[in-house]
Write a structure and sequence with these properties.
single chain, alpha+beta, NADH Oxidase, 2 domains, four-stranded antiparallel sheet, 8 helices, 4 strands, disordered N terminus, binds flavin mononucleotide
Length: 219
């Protein structure tokens, strides 16, 4: 079913280019542009379909210039009335990550004992924290769209990511982690929604099955 969806998506991209008023058949520059659009479309669709949550990373750090590109992609997401009701914080400090993980381990010794556990952010060397302004009615939607932009851009740049609700909840709700939440210096009233683990992948997880019956065309 997954493969069928993927093929349909690729066909859609091809049809979109073919249906342009000038058409690909007219040759010359138009054909080149149309072909390039199909190629680009395929690459974008492939990137979306191949993204998976990564939970094991190489030790390699992620350069801040690279992270900056991800952040730019994130804040260019559509958002309700362009209110941009988000605050992003990037942590790549081993001291911070190991420090809060030490607190996490005391509270969750079973999880911390799992094979391959390095830190509470699914072992990533860089973490992007996403906080929302609850006063903006669409802030959760806006922050979600922002995150997907970041994760898809990351994959296109050879990086792995994992969206993490539990790590954010731990920081947001556990008084013993308060010092680390404070260090994020979030605007007053903002709530930490989720984190994005970022790093160079050290695993290639298989796709999890999606339920295509949840999608319907209505005539
Ligand atoms: C809002 C949200 C919260 C998530 N929280 C966690 C989490 O706390 N820990 C984790 O390992 N994965 C977390 N994930 C990742 C999901 O488990 C993952 O996206 C899902 O199983 C589908 O797998 P895929 O991303 O590889 O396609 C979260 C994803 C989302 C969207």
């Amino acid at each position: 079913m997954k493969i069928k969806l993927f093929v349909s998506a690729l066909c859609l991209v091809g049809m979109m280019a073919g249906c342009s008023p000038t058409g690909a058949q007219q040759g010359g520059e138009t054909a080149t542009v149309a072909t390039a659009a199909v190629d680009t479309g395929k690459i974008v669709v492939e990137n979306i379909m191949a993204r998976r949550s990564v939970r094991q990373y190489k030790e390699w750090p992620v350069g801040r210039d690279t992270v900056q590109v991800l952040l730019e992609c994130g804040i260019n997401a559509p958002n309700g009335m362009n209110k941009q009701p988000w605050a992003l914080r990037v942590v790549d400090s081993k001291e911070y990550i190991d420090g809060v993980t030490a607190v996490f381990k005391e509270v969750n010794p079973r999880v911390a004992g799992e094979q391959g556990f390095k830190n509470m952010f699914r072992n990533a060397p860089t973490v992007i924290f996403v906080a929302a302004d609850p006063a903006a009615s669409s802030s959760q939607i806006d922050c979600g769209l922002l995150g997907e932009n970041i994760m898809l851009a990351a994959r296109a740049m050879g990086l792995g990511t994992c969206c993490l609700g539990s790590s954010a909840a731990f920081l947001q709700n556990n008084p013993r982690a308060a010092e680390y939440l404070e260090k994020l210096d979030l605007p007053k009233g903002y709530k930490l929604l989720y984190c994005i683990a970022v790093g160079y992948p050290d695993e290639s997880p298989a796709a999890k099955e999606r339920d295509a019956s949840r999608v319907k065309f209505i005539d």
